[in-house]
Amino acid sequence: MKNISTLEDLEKVTVEPDRKLFSATHEEIMEGKTTDVYFLRTMDILSHLNIENTVVTAEIFARENGILAGIPEVINVLKDKEIELWALKEGDSFAPKDTLVRIKGPYSQFGIFETTILGMLASSSAWATAAKVAREACKGKPLLCFGARHVHPSVAPVMERAALIGGADNASCILGAKLAGSEPMGTLPHAAFLIAGDTLTVAKAYDEISGPDENRTILIDTFKDETEEALRVAETLGDKLYGIRLDTPSERGGVTAELIKELRARLDQKGYKNVKIIVSGGLYPEKISELADAGVDAFGVGSFISDAKPIDMTMDIKEVNGRPIAKRGRIPGIIENHKLVKMI
Predict the structure, then answer these.
(1) Residues facing residue 341 across a β-bridge
(2) Which tens digits make up the pLDDT trace of 57-113?
């Protein structure tokens, strides 16, 4: 089906009764089926007035600071349209009211995609911005994004890719990492240990199935005291052990700075100074910073990134046929931003 552009087209949009997932397909997004319906009514009215092809300049701005992400998707939505597009580069920072994107062309070419474009930028930029905040809290130590389980699977790769744009060092979601040109990273969940019945059983199997270059990182909070289990694993794997991971649940007080200090001291006293301490589970910037000071070597952050509130994005028409214009409360005419780059 061609792009929908009128209310008459809306009548042809159907949903198959045996549709397996509710998420939009790539084709449905590109055809305009995820737009707000009032843009179709807008096109009907403009067509009735014979002004649907009026050349306009529209600009997108945000209402808060952030890191821009999602521009490649915007480009792919608009690249076959008769428009010009300027935008910040993927990963650029922005301030409130900065012009992030400028589109110039016949309104009929891009008007129905306003909802789609704003949604792409609002969500991805929020995730990228949250990752940047978390990254800064890590104080130079690695940050892994573990947020895929907190969002719908259709957008999990988008979220984890955005986190990498914002500064995460890697991601656990397979597609998210691949989309950003990385290989996904992760160790083992509690499920493996619970099924096997003992941490050492899993640690030995992990060692046996792994190649010589594999970093063997073992989760050590499933059955026993974390420090006791860490030493058991270290004694079993010896120099092959790269790191231990803590994901102590809130029901047990979570991972604390004092626990990390004790764990580091006990490992060091037994000669395991090279064993890395990696933590995950409900981490937020203040806690990340505290744990970084206590001796944590790397962080797995999920919900702080995935739960980031979308950054409010607005698209305004700023010129009509080259004439500056704006609704009340906004300044007519384009708002310059020296960081804009011609994309299309």
Answers:
(1) 87
(2) 999 999 999 999 999 999 999 999 999 999 999 999 999 999 999 999 999 999 999
